[in-house]
Structures are given as C-alpha cells and as structure tokens.
Write a structure and sequence with these properties.
single chain; mainly alpha; Preprotein translocase SecY subunit; 2 domains; three-stranded antiparallel β-sheet; two-stranded antiparallel ribbon; 5 strands; about 70% helix; transmembrane helix; transport; transmembrane; cell membrane; SecY_dom_sf
Length: about 425
C-alpha cells in the first residue's frame, strides 16, 4: 500500500493535482471557522456550551457544512444548496421536456444544465441564508437569547450577513468546480467528504468520554464491519449480457462483440436517505417556528411531539425506513429508463441473448431493475436506521459517526476517488502499477 502511495507522489502531474486538491480543502476548512460579519463569536460559543443538544434537528444540515452552520461562519450553509439544486434539476428532467432534450445533447447540453444548477444554487442559498439569519437573530438556532448571536440587528447588518452567506455558497461551488477541473476526483463530492469527515474525531471523542472505552470499542468494530459491508454492496452489480450483431461496412466487418449492462444493487446512492431525512425534518422545523405561540398544543402538535420529534420512537423509525424504500424505487424509476436503453440497443444492433429486441427487452430490463432495487432499498433502509438504533441500544448520540448518510457518502466518494487516481496512474505509470 505504501509503495502505491509513493508511486502516486512520484508522478509529477498527479502530484500537482493532489496538492492542489489539498490546498482547496484547506481553504474550505478555514472558511468554516471564520465568523460571518455581524456575528458574535463569543455569543455563539456561549450558546453552544449552554445547550447540550446543539442544534438538535439541524444536525443533518450541520453535518454537510462540516460544523460551520452552528458556528454561523462564512461557509455556514455548506454544500447543501448545491446538492438540493442538483437533485431538483435532475428530477425536472422528467417533468420539463427541455431539460430531457439538453441531457441528450451531450457535453453542450450538460453544460447548460450545469448553468441552471448554478443559478438555482444561488437562489436556494439566498433563501437558506435568510432563514438562517432569521433564526440566529431570534435565538431559535441555538436556543439562546435574542441578540446573543447577532448583537446589532439593524437592516444593514442583516442584509450584509445574508449577502456574505450567499457569497459563501457561491465560493464553495467555485472551489468544488476547481477541484473537478484541476484536481483529483469530483470536487463537490470531495468537499462533502471533507465536511463529514471533519465531524468524526469529535463524535468519537464524545462517545469515548460519555460512554467509556467499551462502547468506544464496540462503535469502532461496528464501523469497520459497516465499511466492509458497504464496500461489498456498492461494488455489487448485476451484469445483463448484451451482444451486437455483425455488420458489413464496406469491406470491413464490424460488430459481433459481447458486452454487458452493469446494473448496480444500489443505483440510487444516498439520495433516498437525504429525501427521507429532509421530509421528516419538516415537522421539527414547523415546531421550532411555533414555539413562541401561546395556548395549549393541538392534536397535531401533540402527535408530532410524541412520535416524531424524539427521533427514536418506533413510529418515527418505521416511517423513516419505509420512506427510504419508497424514495429508492422512485429515484431509480426516474433515473433509469428501460425504454430508452432498449431503443438504443435496437438502434445499434444489440440484443440480450434469449430476449427479442424492442418491447420484450424493455420488459425484461424493467423486471431486472425491480428485482435488483428491492435488496438495494432494504440495504439503504437498514444503513439509515443505524444511528437511531445505536442511540437506543448503546446510548450513543444521534450524530452517530458510522451510519446513515455519513458513512454511505464517505465510502462512496472514497471508492470513486481511488478509482480515478488508479486510472490516472495506469495512464502514466502502466508498467510500474503492474509490478
């Protein structure tokens, strides 16, 4: 392993890309600790110390910002606006024919979709910044006194703070694109990986201090087993064989090759878990904004407090599990079109052995997708439940490091980045890599 790492840094071009990526990551992490203008750093720290449940329902968003959100720093909004915008643009391909046409135009159409994603990211960033500043101003963000986080709540300071937070979103988006163009791996994925990994040492230290070394050891063993299981499932795929008929083009015979369609067990990635978590956060957000209202809570409010706000009630767990499975089927349905795949195969003379081209091929692919998606959906559901189960069984906090979206994203990004580095090494040091 160490010799392979040494060969990576012995390649000048690859070494420059890695150092460039590390430099961008350093800038990203520095911005996560610089307080935004108008924010009292001392007030924020006092609020964090006074409230043990730091942020509570905001832990999910705070995880994607690398802890910057609850610090109200320059990069407080993190990468979440871009993730949301990218998901929305991808889903709109099913609704808006123009987006579907752009997707089929290749690189030029993809560039146009990327531009739309940037515009939507800025719009969502402005909206999120407004909500964050409003909650910080009222003290609802960290359950502290009004004016403790933002002492001067004049209009000029509020507008400046919203502008700076929105600019921070644009800056993060630009940093990610720079990594993609001049660094190693997908820039946005790398930044998400860094933001999540930044919270691991603190979470592990908290488990060790509060639960002792036995629970800490159990968590480490569970984490290693989970990583091995996730790597196995993420690499698993169903290979549907495809053969192409021979064609006579001039004096040459082309075609006659055999290949396969790789259908991953987890085709949806981590997006269904993000969907389910975001929707289940809405009741908590609604309760947070209605805390200042007087009067007895109604039936609906009492229902939310009893079953959904704790995050560990069996009703909440069952709802989370079923929503994850449902969103997995939904996302796979809109991202993999058996009709389009069957049509492309027919156009280029391809066929699945034993299956007629056209409608039978489409039906067969839909059947295979349905069978593969079921274990993939169960896998995502069980992974998403791990932090909640850990909180109940071993008493670990809900920010359990080895579970849910965090471990899925980290392992997925790690595998993809390693594959890209390995591909670049094969291009430059082919003989050295095979020693």
């Amino acid at each position: 392993m160490f010799s392979a790492i040494a060969r990576v840094f012995q390649t000048p071009d690859l070494r420059r890309k890695i150092w460039f990526t590390i430099g961008i990551i350093a800038i990203y992490r520095i911005g996560a600790f610089i307080p935004a203008p108008g924010v009292s750093y001392q007030g924020v720290q006092q609020c964090l110390v006074q409230n043990d449940q730091t942020g509570g329902l905001y832990n999910f968003v705070n995880m994607f910002s690398g802890g910057a959100m609850l610090q109200v720093s320059l990069f407080a909004l993190g990468i979440m606006p871009y993730i949301t915008a990218a998901i929305i643009v991808q889903l709109l391909r099913v609704v808006i024919p123009r987006f579907e046409a752009l997707q089929r135009e290749g690189a030029q159409g993809q560039a146009k979709l990327t531009q739309y994603t940037r515009y939507l990211t800025l719009a969502l960033g402005t909206l999120n910044a407004t909500v964050l500043v409003t909650m910080a101003r009222s003290g609802a963000l960290l359950n502290c006194e009004p004016g403790q986080i933002i002492p001067d709540d004049s209009l000029a300071v509020i507008l400046l703070l919203i502008l700076v937070l929105t600019t921070g979103v644009a800056m993060i988006m630009w940093l990610g694109e720079q990594i993609t163009e001049r660094g190693v791996g997908n820039g946005m994925s790398i930044l998400i990986f860094v933001a999540i990994a930044a919270g691991f040492p603190g979470s592990m230290q908290q488990i060790f201090l509060e639960q002792g070394w036995r629970t800490f050891t159990i968590v480490c063993i569970i984490g290693l087993c989970l990583i091995a299981a996730i790597v196995f499932v993420e690499q698993s795929q169903r290979r549907v064989p495809v053969q192409y008929a021979k064609k006579q083009v001039g004096r040459r015979t082309v075609g006659g090759t055999s290949t396969y369609i790789p259908i991953k067990v987890n085709m949806a990635g981590v997006i269904p878990v993000i969907f389910a978590s975001s929707i289940l956060m809405l009741p908590s957000v609604a309760m947070q904004f209605s805390e200042g209202q007087t009067g007895e809570p109604g039936f609906f409010t009492d229902l939310l407090q009893r079953y959904f706000l704790s995050g560990t009630h069996p009703v909440y767990m069952a709802t989370f599990f079923l929503m994850t499975i449902g969103f997995t089927y939904f996302y796979v349905t809109i991202t993999f079109n058996p009709n389009e795949v069957a049509e492309n195969m027919r156009k280029y003379g391809g066929f699945i052995p034993g299956i007629r081209a056209g409608k039978p091929t489409e039906s067969y692919l839909a059947y295979v997708i349905s069978r593969i998606t079921f274990p993939g959906a169960l896998y995502l559901g069980f992974i998403a439940m791990i932090p909640l189960v850990a909180f109940v069984l071993i008493g670990a906090n809900q920010d359990f490091p080895f579970g849910g979206t965090s471990i899925l994203i980290m392992v997925g990004v790690g595998l993809t980045t390693v594959k890209q580095i390995n591909a670049q090494m094969e291009q430059r040091n082919y003989e050295g890599l095979l020693r």
